[in-house]
Structure formats: structure tokens, C-alpha cells
């Protein structure tokens, strides 16, 4: 019953309040697991697209498990002040901190459980130095500050190269062979955490996520928007892996239990090697429009095989079909976009 939700799923998602509720409601498995977690949880880099969902779900799960006294801290610079308010309103204790400043990191509260989410991807061409700093120096400072604590570190499926689509994606045993500056820095992030895991005996997990789907951003929103706008869909990167953001967030919390010494990598995504052409055609049907396709699907794509995570946690609760139909309805009703395209179609690692 890993994926069992505490609430039935709706056919449509009406508004952002609904969407937030669906994404942040913990499954029974998450509440049960969080009831066994000792000590506080600190989430570093909580201010991005996924962070607040992790913080709010963790708070709800602790509360439902009767662990109101265990705190959830959310740390970021809070470039978006609304995120801070939203987190505070949900019972997450926020701390403004630049994770690149050692003197600020030293003041962070102790916690036995850490989820590291800070990262930089877009804008790497202009400031590759900053990307490397955020993705390697911030992890080093955090790993020292939280020596001995559990460290569940967000990583990415971009640590792998393109693999043949017939192979069901790279498993965790596949050698890392990153394409481009960002992906190289992401391998750097993993290596820094792996080094400190051994040095400080910190149980660590490297959470190799591939394309989380929220209705406001993600690969499906990108494809759906382009279909609706009548733009050509380039089939070059012909296959993708996606996972519902709520499922990814649940797995992030459950992966605190995967942390070990030396650091353990785990692929986190959905079960399908999903074809971009299929997704585009499905959007066209649901949005009652024509689809314009160009290019030919390559024999390789950025794909990871998350079989190990399915063995541990079961399949994600939200299917690809539900994600596509929720996204199509969201687009039809003018639902907000974060305007942060994934650039999933990139084949050379230049995001
Ligand atoms: N979303 C996906 O589908 C996906 C896929 C693969 C991997 N990932 C990885 O998962 C992690 C979380 O994803 P996300 O989509 O939420 O990323 P995101 O939107 O880029 O958020 C990361 C957040 O880190 C914070 N941060 C950056 N530099 C910081 C600093 N110096 N000090 C403190 N905070 C800092 C920023 O918030 P502030 O501006 O408030 O500081 C930023 O919003 C990232 O590391 C990403 O690499 C995500």
C-alpha cells in the first residue's frame, strides 16, 4: 500500500489551492515512515519548484503521525518572499541563508535529518562558475555543518549520458557520463556528498530525479503548451521519463530511509519510456486541435531506469494518462504557468 493516498483523487484539478493540496498530501506510507523518524528535519534550498512541497508534506506527515514537536526547518535565500509566507503558514520554520556563505551556514540549527535541494541549472552558459559553486561548494558546506546527520541529496538523471531507448533507461550501475557543464557539476555535487559521507560517517542518498511534473511546469506542460499554440513539436529527443511531483516528493521523504555510508544513488522517475510523439498526439486529442510534428526520434535519449525505487516504494500513484489529462484541462482553463521550460529536448547538455 505504498502509494495509497489519504484522500481520493479528483478527475480535474480546479485551482492552485487544489493542486497544492493534492501534491502535498502524504500517503499512508509516508505518514507511517515519518512516525519512525527521530529528530528534526532541515530542508536546504527549499525556495524552488519542489522545495515547498517537500517541506509542507513533511510537516503534515509529522503532524498526522502525532509528532508535532519535531520541527521542519526550511532554508533558502527566499528570492521569492511569497514562498516564505506560504511555508510559515503551513508550520515550516523558515530561515533566510545563503548556502554559499560559510558564516551563515554555521548558524543553521542542528538536525538529524537533512534534505539538500539547492541547485543551479539554467543560466549556466553565462555563469558556469556560479553553477559549479552552487552545485559543489554549497554541498560541501552543508555536509560539514551536518556531519553525522542523514543527508538526502537531490541529484538528477542528467548524470547519465544518452542511452538507447530500447534499454529501458540507465540503472544506478550505469557509469556517470554527463553531457555539458550543468550535468558535470551535478556529478560534482554527488561526488562531494559521497566524499563527506565517508569522511563524516553521514548516511547519504543521491536522489537522481528525472523530470517532475507539476501542472505549472514540467515536460508535459511544455509539450501541452506547444501543441495548444500550434507550434511544431520536435521529435529529436523522442523519449522521456516523467513522474508526478507529489509522487517525487513522497519518495524524497521515504529516501531518508535509503541513506547509508557510502552514499547510495537511486533513480527516481516514472515507469514508462514515454514517447514524445504519443504525448503530443494525446494532448492534441484532449485539447481538440491538430498536432504538428517535426524530426525523427533518435535511437538514444536521456532515460533512467527506476526499477529499484519501484521495488522499494511501489509504482508512483499518478499515471502518465492522469498527468496528461490533468495538464490538458489545466491548460484549457488558463491555469498558471511558472514559465520555466525544462528544455528537455536538449541533446548536448546545454540547458
Ligand atoms: N524539478 C525537476 O524536475 C528536477 C529534475 C531533476 C533534478 N532536480 C533537482 O532537484 C533539486 C530541486 O529541484 P527544483 O526544481 O526545486 O530546483 P530549483 O527550482 O532550481 O530550486 C532550487 C532552489 O535552491 C535555492 N538556492 C540556490 N542557490 C542557493 C543558495 N546559494 N543559498 C540558498 N538557497 C539557494 C534557490 O532558492 P532561493 O532563491 O530562495 O535561495 C532555488 O530556488 C535541484 O537541485 C535540481 O537540480 C529537479
Briefly characterize the structure.
This protein has 351 residues and is of the alpha/beta class. It has twelve helices and 15 strands. Helix 8 packs across helix 10 and helix 10 packs across helix 12.
Main attributes?
15 strands, Rossmann fold, alpha/beta, 12 helices, 351 residues, binds NADP nicotinamide-adenine-dinucleotide phosphate, two-stranded antiparallel sheet, globular, seven-stranded parallel sheet
Tell me what the structure shows.
This protein has 351 residues and is an alpha/beta fold. The chain has a single domain (16-332), classed as 3-Layer(aba) Sandwich (Rossmann fold). It is 38% helix and 15% strand. A seven-stranded parallel sheet has the order 3-2-1-4-5-7-12, sandwiched between helices. Strands 6-15 form a two-stranded antiparallel sheet. A two-stranded parallel ribbon has the order 8-11. The radius of gyration is 19 Å and the shape is globular. It starts with 15 loop residues before the first helix and ends in a 19-residue tail after the last helix. The mean pLDDT is 96. The structure holds NADP nicotinamide-adenine-dinucleotide phosphate. NADP nicotinamide-adenine-dinucleotide phosphate binds next to α6 and β5.
Q: Could you give the topology of this structure?
A:
Layout: H1 16-24, H2 28-34, E1 41-44, H3 51-64, E2 72-76, H4 81-89, E3 93-96, H5 102-105, E4 113-116, H6 128-145, E5 150-156, E6 163-164, H7 180-200, E7 204-209, E8 212-213, H8 219-228, E9 232-234, E10 239-240, E11 243-244, H9 245-254, E12 264-268, E13 274-275, H10 276-286, E14 292-294, E15 300-301, H11 307-313, H12 320-332
Parallel strand pairs: 1-2, 1-4, 2-3, 4-5, 5-7, 7-12, 8-11, 9-14
Antiparallel strand pairs: 6-15, 10-13
Helix pairs in contact: 2-3, 2-9, 3-9, 6-7, 8-10, 8-12, 10-12
The structure holds NADP nicotinamide-adenine-dinucleotide phosphate (NAP).
